[in-house]
Amino acid sequence: MSGKKRRLTPEGRRAVIVSAALEVFADLGYDRASMRAVAKAAGVTTPVLYDHFASKADLYAAIVEMEADALIDRWEGSGLHISDGGGAEDMFMETVGTIFDWATENEAGWRIIFLDEPTDPVVAKAHARRQARASHVLAAQFSQVDFIHLPVPLDRERANDFLAEATKWTVNAIAAWWWSNRDLTRDQIMQMTHALLWRGLGHVTGEPV
Question: 3-state secondary structure string, the chain?
Answer without folding.
Answer: CCCCCCCCCHHHHHHHHHHHHHHHHHHHCCCCCCHHHHHHHHCCCHHHHHHHCCCHHHHHHHHHHHHHHHHHHHHHHHCCCHHHCCCHHHHHHHHHHHHHHHHHHCHHHHHHHHCCCCCCHHHHHHHHHHHHHHHHHHHHHHCCCCCCCCCCCCCHHHHHHHHHHHHHHHHHHHHHHHHCCCCCCHHHHHHHHHHHHHHHHHHHHCCCC
